[in-house]
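Practice problem: predict the structure.
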Amino acid sequence: MMVDLASFGEEKFNAKGWVNAACKARHPDDSMEKYLGDLEMKLQLMAESIAGSLEEQSAQALLRVPRASRDVLRIRDDAISLRSTVSAVLNKLNQAEGTSAQSVAALARVDAVKQRMDAAHETLQDAAGLVMLSATVEDVFASGDLPRVAETLAQMRRCLAVVGEVPAFGNVKRQLEGLEDRLEGMVQPRLADAITQRKVESTQGLRDILITIDRYSSLEQHYTRVRMRPLRRLWDEFESAKAGLPLAKTSTTENQPGTDRRPPSTAISVKGPAMSFVEWLPHFYDEILLVLEQELKWCMVAFPDDYKLLVPRLLIETMVATSASFAARIDISAEEATAENRASLGGGEVSREANLTGKGQPSRLGLLIMLHNMTGAFAKNVQHLLASIDLAELAKVLQAVYHPYESYKQRYGELERAQLLGEVTALDLRAAVPRGIGARGVELSETVRRMEASVPELTMALEAAVERCISFTGGVEAEALLRTLDEVVLHYLGSLLEVLKSLRSICGVDRALPDAVGGGDLSNLKKDIALLEGAGKKEGGTANLTVDIVPEEEEWSIVQGALQLLTVADSLSSRSSVFEASLRATLTRLESRLQLQGVLATTGQPVALPVALSESEDSTGAPGGTPGMLDITILRLVNDLDKTRRLGGLLEQAKDPRFHALPHTSQRVSAFTEAVNELVYEVLISKVRSKLMDVAQLSAWNQQEEENLFELPNFSAYPLPYIVSVGEYLLTLPQQMMPWAGGGGSDTGPPADGNDENTDEAQYFETEWMFKIAEGATALYIDQIRGIQVLSERGAQQLSADIEYLCNVLSILSMTAPLVLSTFQTCVSTPRNKLPELVEHDGGPPIDPATHRLVCKMRQVSLE
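Answer:
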C-alpha cells in the first residue's frame, strides 16, 4: 500500500476526505478492520521516521550557527577597513586634481601654439609652392601633358585655398581661373572628337581632367552638345520625309563597349506620298529609343559614375530644344486636317462624325490626343530603359518629354469648347419652315424628329468630352471640363428653344415665348405658363392669345407632333440626369486615382516622387498601366499646388449628394421642359379655345320664347354645336395620347409590353394631360359664360343643356365638375321665381354665392 505524502502538505487538507478516499482504494477482498489497521501502522511508522529526521537536522543546524556568526563579524570588519581605504584614495585624488589642473592648462596653451606654428609652416610651404607653380605652369602647358597640367592647376587651387585672401596672391587667383579656362578650351575639341569617335579610354582621360579642375558642368555640356546633334538631325528630317526625300538613318548596329570605332551610317530612301506628322512621330520616337539604348550602354562603360546623369540630361536637352517646333508642327497638322475635312465636305463645317469616328481627319483636340498617346507609349519605354536612374532625374525627363503639350493642357477648356460647339452646331436642328395647308403636320413631325435625334447625339458628344479630358489631362482639368460642358449644354438648349419658337406658327399658336433658356428670367417663364394655364379663371378675364384656325384635316397630325415634343423633353431630362450622375461618379474615381491628399502633403518639398508612383489608366479611368511607373498627371499636380487645391475642393464637393456637376444645366432643362409643356398645352387647347371664342356673344342666350297653342317646349333638347365639338374633341383626345402614353413614340418611354409599372406610368401620363386639358377647357368655358350679358328663359334652358353635356363629358373622363360650373348648371335650370331661394335652401346642392349673384344679374332677378 503506497501512501502519498504530498496531500498532507496542502493548506486545505481534509482528514475525513483522505480517509474515505483511502478506504475506497482498498481491495474488495480485504476486510475493513485489517485495512484500517495496516494504514494506521504505516502512518505511525512514517510519522516516527519524519520526527527522527527532523531532530537530526535541527541538531546539525544548531552546530552551524556559531560558525556563521563568526563569518558575519569578520565580513563587517573587512567592510570598515575598505571604506577607510577608499576615503584615503579620494582625498589623494582631490589633492592631485588641484595641482594638475594648472599643468593641463599650460600644456593646452603650448599645444595650441604648436598647432599654429605647424599651420604657419604649412602655409609658408604652400605659398612657396604656389609661387613656384605659378612660375613653372607655363612650362607645364608647353609640355602638352594635359593630365599633368590639370594636376598642377588642382594643386595651385589647393595652395590658394590654404593661403586664403592674401592680397599678394590676388593676381594668382585670377591667373588660375584663366589657366583653367585655357585648359578647358584645350580639352573641348579632344573631348568632342573622343565622344564622337566613341573612344572610351580617351573620353575617360579627358573626363578625369575636367573633374580634376572641378569642371564637371563642362563635361555635361560637351557631351550633351555632341550627342544631341544626331538627335536633332532626326527631328529635322521630318521636313525631308514630308517632301518624300531620302532620309539618313542611324544604323542599328551596336558597338561593343570599349571600342573606338565610329558607328556607320546608312541612308534609306523614302518614296511615295508625303508623310504627315502623326505618321512620322512614332518612327522618330523609335529612333530616339534606339539611340538612347546605345548611349546608355556606351556611357555605362565610358562614364560608369556619371551615366545616370548624362543620358537623362541628353534626352531632356533634346526634348527642350524641339519643344517649340513640336508645338508648331502640331498646329500645322491641325490646320491641314481641318482644311482636308472642309474640302471633303464641300467647304462646310467639320461634322461630329469626322471628329469621333474615323471619317475624315481628327479635330485639333483629337489630333492632340493621338499624339499624346504616342508620347505616352514613348514615355513608358523611356522609363523602362532608364529604370536604374534616380527618380528625381526620371521625373525631369518625363516633364521634358510631355512639355510640348503643357500649353495645350492649360488651354484644354478652350479647345474642348471649340470642338463641342462645332459638334453641337453640326447637329441637324434647323428651325421649322412655315408650310401651306396640309403640310404643317409633316413639317412639325420632321422638326420634332430632328430635335429628338439630337438628344442622344449630344449625350454621346458630352461623354466623349469626358473621355478626352481623362485621356489628355488625366482629369486634372476637370474644373474647365465642367464649365465647358455647362456652357455647351446652354448653347444647345438655346438652339432647341429657337426651334421651339419656330414651331408655334406651325402649330397654329402665335404667342411669343419668353427667352428663358437663352438666359432670360426663369420666373417670367413660370408666370407666363401659370397665366396661360389659368386663363379665364379670373372673373371677366380673357387670355391675350391669338389662335390660328388650323384646318380640320391636319389638326390631329399637329396634335401628334406636339405630343412628340414631350418625348424630347423627357429624353433630355432623363439623359441629362444620368449624365450628371455619371459625372459625379467619374469625379469620385478621380479623387482616389490622383491621390490629392498625398500631393498636398508635399508642400515645400522639391518633388514628391513617392506620390507620383501609381498605376497609369486608360481613357476610361480603369487601371491599365504598369505598377510603379511615374505618372505625368501626378507630377503636374505636384508642380502646381494651387491647381491641386482647387481640384481637391471640387472633388470634395462632388461627394455631397446635392452637388450639381453642371449647375446651370438642370435649371435650363427644367425651363425647356416647362416651355415644351406650355406649347403642348396651347396646341391641345387651341381647338377648344377656337370653338369657345365667341360663345358669350351667341344670340341663343337672349332669344325670347315663342307662343304656341299646345304649350310645347320651344327650346332645343340637344346641346349646341360648339359644345358638342368641344366634348367630342375631349373624348377623342385620349386615343391620340395612347401612342405616347404607352412609350411608342420615345426611346426612353416605357414599352407597351403589358408590364404593370409601364402601364401605370402610361395611365398617369394620359390622366395628367387629360385633366389639364379638361380643366383648361372648363376654365375657358366658364370665362365665356360669365361674359353673357342677358340670359332669357329660353337661353337659360339652352345653356343648361350645354352645361349638362359638358358635365357628362367630364364624368366620362372621371372628372368632377367644378363648383362654379355646377352652380351655373343649378342656377340656369331653376325657374326665375325660385332663383333667389337657392342660397337659402340647405338641403340642395352646394352653391357658389358669387356665381349665383352673376346668374341672377343675367336673368334680371333682383335679390333684394
